Automatic annotation (TrEMBL):
Any one Gene Ontology molecular-function term assigned to this protein's record: ATP hydrolysis activity
The protein's name: ABC transporter, ATP-binding protein
SMART domains reported for this sequence: AAA (SM00382)
Ranges that cross the membrane: none
Pfam families, alphabetized: ABC_tran
Keyword Transferase: no
């Protein structure tokens, strides 16, 4: 089990409703991508799942128990502030291991940290500060840390959003390899992205959110067998069809306005 359920979840900042009526269940071992326009509340929803805030109403549960705060059962990887900059990369991973497995000796923890860093292709960074690594290397280290603590749930907020296309593709492949590695213990993943193709490559299901206020517009299944190989995927008609559907869903707000004869203001027009 590591099922995450959202029941009628709503969230407001003061009088501003960010999202409402969120109902969704991520099944154990499922890879779910959250896709939606800027401001629909994807990051806010992920923060609630991480236990870094409480919903204004509704319930979030993990295996039926309410999520009331952060916990080692949920690993978190954010876009660019995942590692403590004042600690070496190795110490960052050791710190997490120390919280997850406090009974293990320092030497064991350092060894495990090094092993996970190597698993993501970082052989020589243990004693380096995160600031001395490239963005891609920092995200590798953050992934190593998330997998090292072996939490059954992984929450990722645009982890590859700031990376160049090649690094991004490599890290997507790495993430899929790690996630698929042990099919009996697959993590339940929530992955926020703006990138339709990334969502199709990674997800079992894609949750598309609408905006003003945020809500679940649709949930699409990615019925493409795994392992998915990038080159084959791009020439698969199922990929093209799903990509088209997702883009249509994402643009639905704009299309609705146009259908009703209203002009869509371009950004900044009202200023
Ligand atoms: N601390 C805060 N106080 C008040 N409003 C906030 C705060 N954090 C976020 N918001 C607002 O909540 C809304 C949702 O923000 P959030 O970052 O969750 O959206 P998002 O879908 O992840 O956006 P993006 O794709 O641009 O990252 C936005 O309108 C944002 O301005």
């Amino acid at each position: 089990m590591h099922e995450i359920a959202l029941h009628d979840v709503a969230f407001s900042y003061g009088s501003q409703t960010i999202f409402e009526d969120i109902n969704f269940t991520a099944y154990a071992g499922e890879f779910v991508c959250l896709l939606g326009p800027s401001g629909c509340g994807k990051s806010t929803l992920l923060r609630l799942l991480a236990g870094l805030g409480q919903p204004s109403s509704g319930r979030l549960t993990l295996d039926g128990s309410p999520i009331t705060g952060p916990g080692l059962d949920r690993g978190v990887v954010f876009q660019d502030y995942s590692l403590f900059p004042w600690m070496t990369t190795g110490q960052n991973v050791v710190l997490a291991l120390n919280q997850a497995f406090p009974g293990n000796s320092k030497a064991e923890q350092a060894e495990t940290a090094q092993a996970y860093l190597e698993m993501v292709g970082l052989t020589d960074v243990f004693h380096k500060l995160p600031g001395a690594l490239s963005g891609g290397m920092r995200q590798r280290a953050a992934i190593a840390r998330a997998f090292a603590i072996n939490s059954p749930v992984l929450l990722m907020d645009e982890p590859f959003g700031a990376l160049d296309a090649i690094t991004r593709a490599r890290l997507q492949d790495l993430l899929l390899q790690l996630w698929q590695h042990n099919s009996a213990e697959r993590k339940t993943v929530f992955f926020v992205t703006h990138d339709v193709e990334e969502a199709i490559l990674l997800a079992d299901r894609v949750v598309v959110m609408g905006v003003n206020p945020g809500s679940v517009r649709s949930v699409l299944e990615v019925d493409i067998p795994r392992p998915r190989r990038r080159q084959e995927l791009y020439s698969d008609p199922a990929f093209a069809e799903l990509r088209h559907k997702l883009i249509r869903e994402l643009n639905a707000d704009v299309l609705e306005k146009l259908n009703h004869g209203r002009t869509v203001q371009s950004a900044g027009e009202a200023i």
